[in-house]
Amino acid sequence: MASEPSATPMTLTTVVASTRPGRVGRSVADWFTARAAEYDGFESHLVDLRELALPFYDEPHPPALRQYTRSHTVEWSRIVDASDAFVFVTPEYNGGFPAR
């Protein structure tokens, strides 16, 4: 017996993964987020890593411990916990994705 679809939409978070000047990822992510919002099955959100200002390796403890000391890490953790699915909009550099 198949269950009925949930009345609660899934939370879809689109992440702009490039923080570089001159990037086009934000416009692509804005477009995608608007299209996803048209579908009733998703509650669509956008997160721009440039705006979040989430630096590399600035927490003293491993992420699995969830012992965050920085407000930006607490915010990122909140976003991840609240999301059911992700789309990462990232540029291509030399045939792969960038480190930042």
Care to describe what's here?
The protein is an alpha/beta fold and 100 residues long. The longest helix has 13 residues. The protein is flat. It has a three-stranded parallel β-sheet with strand order 2-1-3, sandwiched between helices. It has one domain: Rossmann fold, CATH 3.40.50.360.
Question: Could you give the topology of this structure?
Answer:
Layout: E1 10-16, H1 25-37, E2 42-48, H2 49-52, H3 71-82, E3 85-89
Parallel strand pairs: 1-2, 1-3
Descriptors for this entry?
100 residues; alpha/beta; Rossmann fold; three-stranded parallel sheet; 19% strand
Q: Tell me the distance between the termini.
A: 46 Å
- What is the alpha-carbon Rg in Å? 16 Å
CATH architecture: 3-Layer(aba) Sandwich
CATH homologous superfamily caption: Flavodoxin domain
Give the helices and strands as they follow along the chain: EHEHHE
Low-confidence stretches: none
Widest sheet, order of strands:
2-1-3
> Quick check: average pLDDT?
88
Text of the CATH class: Alpha Beta
Short description:
With 100 residues, the protein is an alpha/beta fold.
